[in-house]
Structure formats: structure tokens, C-alpha cells
Design brief:
Strand content: 15-25%
Helix content: 25-40%
Radius of gyration: 21 Å
Number of helices: 12
Structural class: alpha/beta
Distance between the termini: 32 Å
Number of strands: 14
Shape: elongated
Order of helices and strands: HHEEHHEEHEEEHEEEHHHEHEHEEH
């Protein structure tokens, strides 16, 4: 993010910014720290977009202070009166952290500097770095604008995104976060959430295809990749169809090939029969809104169960008459190894046919 306009402002005016600002949300910080007493005990607590480290002292040790501005990071030790935390200069959109290394994440008015189109994938990366059950606190701006400048900003050049609360809730659900509370205070949405044991969406605007599974398996949720078992033929079929160039890498599929991934229902189960009618209904409503906002070329349902739940109980594989969020829909057979009736060649052909609908 070093070349981003907001980061450039902080780099050049860090001392001035510190002299004109002070720590905010002390009550939220205290409540967040209390939550951690009963959460996962291993791993660091991250202050993401930490600025000069005003919140560091209120977080349980060990603390990882991460910011894109090196000038801000240089002040962290001075602002923190206790133990100096680990400091990392990094981009919120691609955290240089190993999987599940964080037991909690605090991000106060940092994701506001990302374009809304980037936030879903950034939160998916945060989900990857968090342990299941980790506490999360996010502060974002309320409103409905996309990465613009404020006319009254006393540090001009910075850019901000603002969110309608309902839209933000959908993004958080897609990111595999259970929203416990959203408080709106002075046009700031203060989010308290928990990292779920599930898969996070990898989505963005202008996708060539949005692949939609029914719900994650327990194994997929554990390894963090959809269609993850060696017997599942989704990735071999996607490679053979030319849709992706790396197996088992949803982020690369999105960034390099504009192939996104989501699930109709986010809760992982052993069997589809464990899902409820309400979960199908709510999941379909979220998927409709997701497709309407992001406008993928096509929504491809993998497996008859999910497709029939969303489209028509009698739906057959192939292009569908019903559209999802105004976008074309395609239903293909399950790629599970248990579906021995459908060959890898047939699955590949279905993915090619789905991509041709865009």
C-alpha cells in the first residue's frame, strides 16, 4: 500500500497527524480485551492499521502492530507505554502471516482506506490468518460512497469507502465472520464479530464466473479450500477447462483468472441433510444480492443439491432459465468422487459451457 494515496499522506505527515489526533473507542477496546479472556489462548493479537499504536497498550500480549505506513510504525514504541509490540509493515489486502496464527484482530478505521471492491478479498485473507473462534473488532465508515476524498478532510489526499450496514453485513458473512453486534456511532460502524470455522468467499467485481457450492465440508473448512479432497474433481476439471492455472488456490483463481468462489450456505456440515430450510432461504437471498452487486458473467452451481435448492427442484444440468441477481445461471453435476456417473471429461465440458454464458 506504499503507493496508495492515503498511505502517502500518513508517510509524509505522520508527526502532524499524531499532534492533531488522539486515541478513540477506549470503551470498545476495553470490551474487546475482556472478550479475549475467554477466547482462543494461543497466537498473537493483531492491531491492523495500528497507526502510531494508540490501542496497543489495551490489547493482551503478544501484540502484532501492522501498518502500511512505516512512518506510523516508527512511532508505535513511543505511543505504547508498555512492552513494544512486534511491528510489521504490510498491506491489509495481503497479510504476510501464516494461517491461523492470530487469536484476535483489532482494526480501527483501517479498512476504510480500501476500495469496497477490495474488502471482501482482504477479509478473506484475514479469515485465513485467524484461528477459529478468534474475536474480531472492525471500525468502518457508514454511508454509501466508493473510495472517494472528503471535501472537509484536514489531511487532503486520503480516500475513504463508506458502507450501508446491510451491505457490510453480507460482506462479513461471506468472509466467514459471525456478526455479534454492529453499533453505529457518529457515522462509524463498530463491528464485533467472531471468526467461524468455514470458508471465506473469494469474490470481486467483474468476475468471469462465480462458482457456488452448496456448503463447505468439514474438511474444506479445516484446510481453507473448497473442493479440497483429493477425490474431488473440481480443480482438475477447472484446470482442464482453462479456467484456472493453479489447483486448490482460490485467491489465485480470482486474482489471475477472475474466477470467484462462494457457498449457498456458509455453515460446514458432514451431510447436506443437516442444513435447514431457513439456511437455504437466507443463503439464496445473500447470493442474489452478491450477484447483483458484483455482476459476475455467470453463476455456476456445482452439484444438483445446491442448484435445485436455489433454482428449481427439478432443475437439470445446463443453462438455467432462472437468473441469480440478474446474472445467467448454470447447473453442473457434483464434482465429488462419489459421483462416479459423471466423468472428468464431462465435468470439464460443463465448466466450459458455463464459462461460455458470460
Amino acid at each position: 500500500m506504499g503507493r496508495e494515496p492515503s498511505v502517502a499522506v500518513y508517510e509524509s505527515r505522520a508527526q502532524e497527524w499524531m499532534s492533531r489526533r488522539a486515541r478513540q473507542y477506549g470503551d470498545r477496546l476495553e470490551h474487546f480485551a475482556a472478550r479475549l479472556a475467554s477466547g482462543p489462548g494461543d497466537g498473537a493479537v493483531a492491531d491492523l492499521g495500528c497507526g502510531p499504536g494508540w490501542h496497543v497498550d489495551g490489547l493482551p500480549q503478544p501484540v502484532l502492530a501492522l501498518d502500511a505506513s512505516r512512518a506510523m510504525l516508527a512511532e508505535v514504541g513511543a505511543a505504547a507505554s508498555g512492552t513494544v509490540p512486534m511491528r510489521v509493515a504490510a498491506d491489509l489486502r495481503a497479510l504476510p502471516l501464516r494461517d491461523r496464527c492470530l487469536r484476535a484482530a483489532w482494526a480501527s478505521r483501517s479498512y476504510i482506506h480500501l476500495a469496497r471492491a477490495e474488502v471482501s478479498l482482504a477479509l478473506a485473507d484475514l479469515h485465513r490468518a485467524l484461528a477459529p473462534g478468534a474475536a474480531v473488532e472492525l471500525h468502518l465508515f457508514a454511508g454509501d460512497t466508493e473510495w472517494d476524498e472528503r471535501a472537509d478532510d484536514d489531511f487532503p489526499g486520503r480516500r475513504f469507502s463508506r458502507w450501508p450496514e446491510a451491505w457490510l453485513r453480507d460482506v462479513l458473512v461471506g468472509a466467514g465472520l459471525a456478526v455479534e453486534n454492529i453499533e453505529q456511532r457518529n457515522r462509524v460502524l463498530l463491528v464485533s464479530a467472531t471468526r467461524l470455522h468455514t470458508l471465506a468467499d473469494t469474490v470481486a467485481p467483474s468476475m468471469r464466473m462465480l462458482v457456488c457450492g452448496l456448503n463447505p465440508s468439514l474438511y474444506a473448512a479445516e484446510v481453507g479450500v473448497g473442493f479440497a479432497r483429493g477425490s474431488n474433481r473440481f480443480w482438475p476439471a477447472a484446470l482442464a477447462a482453462g479456467l484456472v492455472s493453479r489447483a486448490r488456490d482460490p485467491r489465485h483463481a480470482l486474482v489471475a483468472h477472475h474466477i470467484g468462489m462462494t457457498d449457498l450456505v456458509k455453515r460446514p456440515t458432514r451431510q447436506a441433510a443437516e442444513l435447514t430450510a431457513a439456511e437455504y432461504r437466507d443463503g439464496l437471498a445473500r447470493l442474489e444480492r452478491l450477484a447483483e452487486r458484483l455482476e459476475p458473467g455467470v453463476v455456476c452451481f456445482v452439484g444438483r443439491a445446491g442448484g435445485r435448492a436455489a433454482l428449481d427442484r427439478r432443475a437439470s444440468p445446463g443453462p438455467q432459465s432462472r437468473r441469480i441477481g440478474g446474472r445467467p445461471a448454470y447447473l453442473m453435476p457434483s464434482t465429488s468422487g462419489l459421483n462416479a456417473r459423471t466423468s472428468l471429461e464431462d465435468l470439464t465440458a460443463h465448466l466450459r459451457a458455463a464459462a461460455a454464458l458470460e
